[in-house]
Amino acid sequence: MKIKLKVEDQVKIFLTSIIVILMLSITGIYFYYEDNVKETWSNSYHLGPVFNTVVSYRLYSPNSKRKELTKEANELLVYYHRLFDRHNEEDYYIDDDESKGILYNLKSINDIYGTNKTIQVDEDLANILLIALEHGEKSDGYFNIAVGELSSLWSTYIEQATSIVCVDESCQPSKEVIEELVTCTPSIRELKEILIITKKDEKYYVKFDQYKDCEKVSLTLGGIAKGYAFKQIGDYFNDKGYLTLFNAQSSSYFNRYQKGLENVVNNIVDPKAPSSGIAFSFKGIKSLGSSTSGDYEQGYYVKENGKTIRRHHILNPLTGYSENYYHSISAYLDDPLVADILTTTLFNLDFEESYKLYLEYKKDYPELEVAWIRDTSIIASDGIFDKIEVKGNYSLIKASLEGGK
Known about the structure:
3-stranded antiparallel beta sheet, T-fold
């Protein structure tokens, strides 16, 4: 799919490129190829913002291919951003050609809720929905893309929060409003019944039926979109023979293993000092993808029943509220999509249940490692425990059903 970048997108690329080039010139990541010839990244580019964050990517390629590959990467990132966007669809046309019709995206699906209409969608949109349903089942509903209305509600309060600790009742929605929205959030089993995805003659179609008497139900791909896009774009460039690294602050993906990858140092933000602190660093694992979810990214504090608690953007679909078991969770495995899903899901579970789900996923992804950060401790899975160097004011605990208590 060919997409022309709008003027404002080009300006963003130019300005943010200056920042990322400075950052990358400082970090100086090196890779060692099998023939032991030291090589560095030959080019680095930046595109932002997409997926409500800033995405940087780097390609190892000849200078003669620089312009062509940059254009391709930019177009693909914009395409996936538009496809998974639940807020906008105007000016989104197939190949940016109005005569070819609208590029139906996630907002298009939300808009046909309860209308008995069926729309044709791109294969990528159908695929990501099916993957989300699969992992929703595996997580017993703790990962649920049908929290769109809850997410929109809490986003409004998060954006409006102006004080460090809010004590006013107006700082958060009423329990009645939350309960109503939870009632109108279908379970995964129910969602599979009303979100009808079909394939005919190599084309994909979606129909979004009414749920109960709920006026509105909407989907969000916030916990999966970046990972899916990174995997698809990375694999595309890998098939063409180019090593790439994608980074979106809390997510990253190398599109193939390269000798020396285990020597790359990973620094994990201290959730108690996200603008300047490092909680821990490590090197020595070979997983290609990583994802970190944290309560420090979007949120605010409220006083409730004499306690100060954090309200943030990672919502428990079963309660309608964010949980406070952890400050951040990081997952490392080869598939960045699953890493995104897993950090979101584990956040909603107490440690015993979170660790059990980690063990279930490790059966399918043996390279998987996870680190949970609490108030005063970092709990690390067995394969990463000995590689961690604690930087912040935390104790280090090896993860087990007993170790997390």
